[in-house]
Amino acid sequence: MRIITFVMAMLMTITTIKAQNMKENVDFNVWPKGEPNTAYAQYFIGNSYLAPLDAANGGPVNVTFEPRCRNNWHIHHKSVQVLICVAGHGWYVAEGQAPVAMHPGSVVAIPAEVKHWHGAAKDSWFQHLTYNAHVEAGASNEWLEPVTDEEYDKLPASGELLSVTDPEYIQRFEAFAYGEVAGQVKDQLDDHTRYISYLATLLGCQGIDTYRELLPVALDKGVTPVEVKEIVYQATAYLGMGRVRPFLSATNEILSSRGIPLPLAPQSTTTMDTRRKAGTQAQVDCFGEGMRDFWKSGPDDSRHINRWLADNCFGDYYTRTGLDLKTRELITFCFLSAQGGCEPQLKSHIAGNYKVGNSKDLLIAVISANIPFIGYPRTLNALGCIRSVEADK
What's the pTM? Predict the structure, then answer.
């Protein structure tokens, strides 16, 4: 009975947070937001924006919908309307047909004379390009009645689509991840630490959609905006900017949606002149005195990489405030175990975790908590690395 209550509480929390945190998951530097759609505002519920693309040559129009915004039922006479989703999540609904969920890359060609509407999901901004094809003489657009809240609210939010399309799967996953697994590790991991490990692990395995869902929950569990930013920043040293950039953008969108002003307060404690020495000290603190001169070791053709480990990886990130050294080594453990293929580095950082005070039991609890997100092979590989370090002790 206790575990059922725990699961239901978790599911209710996630549902509430999703409803409260509509994410502006649109980068207006990629597809412009445009100007308020005042010319057609009477045919829309909510705010929309128009950005004509190459208007002089009759190019398509980029339409941006805020969450819950949709246009009225309408019909295109003697022309086909084409919609191409470029950002966010939304819906295309034709009368008498099943709703079509739209996500980036979705294309819908709406035949002439079909009564329909399109707009954003409840919890997401939505952008689509639109243009007309097969236009015949006398083509026109007929605007009809609004889409009522009763009609619209029957559609799931973007974060709830799996509950509609895959109900048996998502029920079992959520019961396992947020019930059975969370219950197993609750004595070793408080919510704050567990959600920090979730965020770092999702960065490591590139789980951007789940990261978007869990970041608002993590913030409500006490993970601070500064801590979140520091997790993302430090991931750059282990994943590279190419993999971190989408998570940084998602973090900024979600923090902004909560009214948190950006940029956050500076956390750096080093300068370009002091970072190498400070980074070396951080390495020593994590791995022992043997790292004191590591930055100048190695063959001539690759010695610069060892120097960069000191001044960039440790000097630029580990020396920042916002997270203590124990937490920084813990999230590094998550980055490495989640991405896989990093077993030599993972073993080194398991030893580093021990040195800064994180126990074997804590690390096993962390990889146990993250099984639902990274799967069993990477979990077992990480567990094998722990066993190997233990044996070497």
Answer: 0.71
